[in-house]
Request: fold
Amino acid sequence: MDPLTINETSFILMDGSTAITGVVTYNDVTATFTPSANLDANTLYSVTITTDATNTTGISLENNYEWSFTTGTLISPMVISTDPEDNEIDVALDKTITATFSEPMDLATIDETTFTLQEGTNFITGTISYNALTASFVPSVDLLPGTLYKATITTGATNVAGIPLANNYEWEFTTAGTPFEPTIDLGSVERFGIISGVAVSNNAGPSEIHDLDIGIYPGARSSITGFFDVDGGPGLIFNGDFYAADDADPVPAMLLQAKDDLTAAYLAAEGATSPAPATVAGDLGGQTLPPGIYKSNSTLMIQNGNLTLDGQGDPNAEWIFQIASDFTTVGGSPYPSPAGGNVILIGGAQAKNIIWQVGSSAVIGDYTSFKGNVLALTSVTMNAYSQAVGRMLCSNGAVTLTSTNFIYRP
Reply:
């Protein structure tokens, strides 16, 4: 054909009565129409090569040549298989996690934000790749034995046409082996984010407790105040419940056991001697501490700077703080306190492996970010806008949430 006659006037694409703009090219014996924008889904289009198109001797088509087609629907890609499979057990600790898709995916959208692996609330670091419909996640270190993990492919992953998954795709698996047993066993009190002897109060603001229970023993349910499910207060509990000594059986016996387990954990932490405790005093702000036992013969605080706990690559690293008297963190607005008073975890450190054994009362300061399990003999107070990944457990006194406090399961 004469290339000069193969153009936008002789090669026409229509959506009903609307002409589609595009670029027309001709090579050898093939004419190509490239639309300026993606065509609409599930739409009938008609195409015409007109008699304006001629061959190299100037002879035109005898008649217009027409045909039509319908575009496909916008179907989201799917994850069709995973390795390990959902709910698989005895998975190798050095396992590469894979997900296979129903169609080719956009490589640029398969990364650490769209393919995640979690152990509880902790995100596992790793290397992500994509090849031949399969995305792979290689953890940076071996997984923990006997541990439940959750993998997720998010809706940020798209196919080559830019269409995302319809929903996040999640699956879980459990690794082989015996799970790590901490030195200090919380026993049945592990289910609680707050437990108290006499009172639990949320004084103001929409405080939240996530994935943990609230308990009081020997105090009565009437001594739990400021929570929506109890007295219509602003405090909320998510995936947890309230328990009191005057609830119906078998709750009192359960609470008594939890308090006994708290006492046992407190005494075990107080008496821990291996490794040999390092003496600390005053303000821990600005320090970085490796795993170990740290003993204060008086009060202890975190104020001038943050306390950083470095797991040194060991996810089972433990810290026990033996505090003879009061423990206080001190901070200020906004959250997390820019002046200090926060507990920072690095090097694989996990909040669940941190014990704060407090011989008197603990105060978590305004706007501070706290990590670990507080086992206080007397009372625990969370000041305004402070947040904790851990537990606030006291044997004898009250647990007080001052205003808009958050506690998350470690």
Notes: The longest strand covers residues 369-376.
